[in-house]
Write a structure and sequence with these properties.
single chain, 3 helices, 71% helix
């Protein structure tokens, strides 16, 4: 029987690469804190500034 992958390490390497890629996409599309929630925290501190919020978005 001919397998698609030469050995178990090849499968693990492929799955690991896919998981890393998925994690990167998740981090870029979903943040732990939204722009609005960061602005609320900065407002509470009296230091709300659009440039600070924009800097935190990057």
């Amino acid at each position: 029987m001919v397998g698609i992958f030469p050995n178990d390490r090849a499968v693990i390497r492929l799955v690991g690469a896919l998981l890393i890629e998925q994690s990167d996409e998740w981090l870029l599309t979903r943040g732990y804190l939204s722009k609005e929630s960061i602005a609320l925290v900065l407002e509470d501190q009296g230091d709300a500034d659009e440039s600070e919020v924009a800097t935190l978005e990057r």
